[in-house]
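Quick one, probably user error.
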């Protein structure tokens, strides 16, 4: 199973379980919340009615037909109330009034008049000066058959002379409860669906980021300079940094192994020649042979020194992580390099034609740019015949600059065109048929 599916399934499981528990808890809270709101309304109604009937209870008019007809007329008054999606047609409340002994003086349903309600919590607690309320079920096993009663004291001159109880059936509250639960379930399902989609996107983003890091690690090389970066993903960036650091450490070891192997291989030939010449010099030789073998030792020693210097220079360039760029006058830099080569130029009677302008400002790294130009001019001097010319030109191309160094001499063989910039590849010089180290142009192309 892919990491995308694993992450998404874990997110989904946590989300679905959490959403189920949350929605279930909220749905269960709907009933007590609605009941609390209804109880608050019943308490207001009971206190209002208690204040209105106080005089009637005091004068004994509660049990008269006139009082009953007035209350019944109010309770049976038709309504046309559109409460959200619920159509209310009439007043759905039950009222009964008791005296200070708990005996029912009036019952809007006409079935409890004369009965003793003093033991019911709503009446008993109200007569004791407390808040009175109760919920009673007609069927103990069926919650929908319950009725909520809220009572208020009838007071005359700071004395409780009776109790008014107002009731409402739970069945009448059920449409509001069901509608609230239904809306909650719909909204919850929408949230779950959107959260699942979002979690899938996050899981895919994490998987894609991990795949990018893996691909970055597979394709990472010294030629790749663009670092991988993730927005708002500190952990992935830390992983990329760790991979880069490990790469640098491994490359350091590889450089050591590579250059030790290369140095060993390249030193073998001149050391063999030096050893052979030294052994011959131990024999009795005439002055001409002795001079020839001594010269050979000097030449091979110079070759060893040049080889080591070029290898160290190449290693320094390849290990350098960042160039220190600054503004450079290319014309002055080229003239400086030409002056450094003046001995060779004079010896071979080579004519240098410099077409560069007096001032040519560019941005670059002074040391490595000088090394690159010097290596190319060295190569041009080596392959330019005696008393021939080398031409230097510069062409501006919008934001870039091309520096060309051309010499008069034999062309590079076609078979060598794709190899001249490879490390250790070299062609024999026309005047001596000797080869160079094959590192100069490699430094140039690496720069």
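Nope, works fine. Designed sequence:
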């Amino acid at each position: 199973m892919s990491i995308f599916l694993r992450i998404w399934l874990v997110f989904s499981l946590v989300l679905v379980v959490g959403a189920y528990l949350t929605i279930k808890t909220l749905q269960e809270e709907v009933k007590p919340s609605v009941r609390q709101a209804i109880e608050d309304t019943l308490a207001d109604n009971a206190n209002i009615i208690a204040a209105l009937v106080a005089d009637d209870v005091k004068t004994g008019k509660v049990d008269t037909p006139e009082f009953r007809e007035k209350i019944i007329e109010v309770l049976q008054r038709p309504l046309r109330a559109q409460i959200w999606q619920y159509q209310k047609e009439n007043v759905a409340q039950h009222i009964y009034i008791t005296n200070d002994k708990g005996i029912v003086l009036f019952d809007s349903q006409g079935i409890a008049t004369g009965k003793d309600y003093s033991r019911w919590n709503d009446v008993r607690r109200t007569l004791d000066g407390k808040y009175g309320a109760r919920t009673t079920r007609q069927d103990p096993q069926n919650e929908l058959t319950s009725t909520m009663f809220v009572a208020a004291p009838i007071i005359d001159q700071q004395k409780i002379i009776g109790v008014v109880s107002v009731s409402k059936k739970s069945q009448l509250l059920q449409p509001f409860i069901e509608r609230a639960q239904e809306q909650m379930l719909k909204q919850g399902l929408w949230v779950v669906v959107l959260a699942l989609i979002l979690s899938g996107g996050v899981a895919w983003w994490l998987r894609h980021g991990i795949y990018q890091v893996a691909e970055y690690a597979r394709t990472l090389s010294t030629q790749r300079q663009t670092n991988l970066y993730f927005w708002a993903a500190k952990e992935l960036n830390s992983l990329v940094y760790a991979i880069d650091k490990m790469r640098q450490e491994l490359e350091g070891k590889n450089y050591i192994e590579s250059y030790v192997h290369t140095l060993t291989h390249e030193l073998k030939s001149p050391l063999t020649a030096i050893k052979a010449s030294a052994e011959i010099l131990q024999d009795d030789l005439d002055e001409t042979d002795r001079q020839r073998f001594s010269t050979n030792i000097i030449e091979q020693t110079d070759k060893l020194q040049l080889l080591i210097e070029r290898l160290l220079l190449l290693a320094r360039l390849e290990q350098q992580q960042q160039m220190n760029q600054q503004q450079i006058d290319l014309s002055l830099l080229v003239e400086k390099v030409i002056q450094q080569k003046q001995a060779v130029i004079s010896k071979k009677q080579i004519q240098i034609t410099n077409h560069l302008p007096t001032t040519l400002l560019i941005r670059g790294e002074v040391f490595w740019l000088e090394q690159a130009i010097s290596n190319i001019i060295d190569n041009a001097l080596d392959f330019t015949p005696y008393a021939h010319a080398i031409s230097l030109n510069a062409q501006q191309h919008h934001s870039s600059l091309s520096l060309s160094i051309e010499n008069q001499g034999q062309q590079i063989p076609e078979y060598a065109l794709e190899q001249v910039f490879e490390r250790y590849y070299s062609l024999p010089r026309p005047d001596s048929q000797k080869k160079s180290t094959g590192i100069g142009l490699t430094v140039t192309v690496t720069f």
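Residues 442-447 have pLDDT under 50 and may be disordered.
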